[in-house]
């Protein structure tokens, strides 16, 4: 593994993809059309840099537990190659650069929200919620859901009643997080047990975890249809949301009988979330 590849791995590129797309959706939702290329570039740059920096800090904080998890072997190897000191410096550089761009070129609210996302992920979730409670992932979804509001704030710098629409998308992301993580925790329960994380399947068992996954998963479909109901999105978006939502529920309920489907639920949940954001953005842009 080379140095550059190690840095990319430690930045958690899959999370960066999610952060970038949801942030873009927030911008489109705020303007009801495609924003100016400059503000898109600046906003995505701040989101990507801050997310990468926060992910690197997360790797440093959890390095001892990560060494006990088989699925994170490559990430552990990458951290050893890069080194804690350099990664700490590089993560701080990315975060400072991100906040500077946001403060100077976007607006104060955007900068504050980015800072909130960084601290809620690295401190509130990583150091406290994830280690203390199996329900930690519920509130732990805050940093993952904030990018939609960060993107929205890049276009609308003042909080108003219009923020209701993006708050619904924020809620969707919050509700999506628990079944997404709990399905992974079901699939890799032994790994999380070795690392000492009090995940839902370990503390309360698979049956109770399945019950909670079903509740959260069932709530996603009606929440996603809000944008069609209020007239923001067209029938095209509604069809995509219904089809992917029903398909996600299919995987969820099959996994209750066939435990090897837990991995499928986790993977499809990512696809489901990305499709909802992408289809909403495209629908608004194409029908402006």
Identify the notable features of this structure and list them briefly.
single chain, 288 residues, mainly alpha, Farnesyl Diphosphate Synthase, 15 helices
The coarse overall form would be: globular
Largest sheet: none
Please give the share of residues in helix: over 70%
Order of helices and strands: HHHHHHHHHHHHHHH
CATH topology: Farnesyl Diphosphate Synthase
Estimated radius of gyration: 19 Å
Say how many strands there are. 0
Q: How far is the N terminus from the C terminus?
A: 46 Å
How would you sum up this structure, described in words?
- This protein has a single domain (3-286), classed as Farnesyl Diphosphate Synthase (Orthogonal Bundle).
- It is an all-alpha fold.
- The mean pLDDT is 93.
- It starts with a helix and ends with a helix.
- The radius of gyration is 19 Å and the shape is globular.
- It is built from 15 helices and no strands.
Topology summary:
Elements: H1 3-10, H2 13-31, H3 37-61, H4 63-66, H5 73-82, H6 84-106, H7 108-132, H8 136-139, H9 142-155, H10 163-187, H11 189-195, H12 200-224, H13 226-229, H14 235-255, H15 262-286
Helix pairs in contact: 1-5, 2-3, 2-9, 2-15, 3-6, 3-7, 3-9, 6-7, 7-9, 9-10, 10-12, 10-15, 12-14, 14-15
Summary, kept brief:
This protein is mainly α and 288 residues long. The protein is built from 15 helices and no strands.
């Amino acid at each position: 593994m080379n140095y550059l590849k190690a840095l990319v791995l430690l930045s958690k590129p899959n999370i960066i993809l999610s952060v970038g797309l949801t942030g873009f959706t927030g911008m489109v939702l705020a303007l009801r059309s495609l924003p100016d290329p400059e503000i898109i570039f600046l906003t995505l740059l701040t989101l990507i840099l801050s997310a990468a920096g926060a992910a690197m800090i997360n790797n440093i904080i959890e390095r001892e537990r990560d060494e006990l998890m088989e699925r994170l072997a490559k990430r552990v190897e990458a951290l050893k190659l890069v080194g804690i000191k350099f990664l700490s410096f590089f993560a701080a550089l990315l975060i400072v650069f991100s906040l500077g761009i946001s403060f100077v070129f976007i607006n104060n609210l955007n900068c504050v929200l980015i800072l909130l996302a960084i601290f809620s992920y690295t401190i509130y979730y990583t150091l406290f919620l994830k280690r203390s409670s199996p329900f930690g992932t519920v509130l732990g979804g805050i940093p993952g859901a904030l990018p939609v509001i960060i993107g929205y704030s890049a276009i609308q710098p003042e909080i108003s009643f219009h923020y209701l629409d993006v708050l619904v998308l924020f809620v969707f992301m919050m509700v999506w997080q628990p079944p997404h993580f709990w399905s992974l925790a079901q699939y890799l329960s032994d790994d999380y047990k070795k690392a000492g994380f009090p995940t839902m399947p370990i503390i309360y068992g698979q049956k109770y975890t399945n019950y909670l996954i079903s509740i959260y998963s069932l709530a996603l479909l009606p929440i996603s249809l809000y944008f069609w109901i209020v007239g923001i999105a067209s029938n095209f978006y509604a069809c995509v949301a219904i089809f992917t939502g029903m398909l996600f529920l299919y995987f969820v309920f099959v996994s209750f009988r066939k435990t090897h489907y837990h991995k499928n639920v986790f993977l499809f949940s990512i696809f489901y979330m990305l499709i909802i954001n992408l289809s909403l953005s495209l629908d608004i842009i194409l029908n402006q």
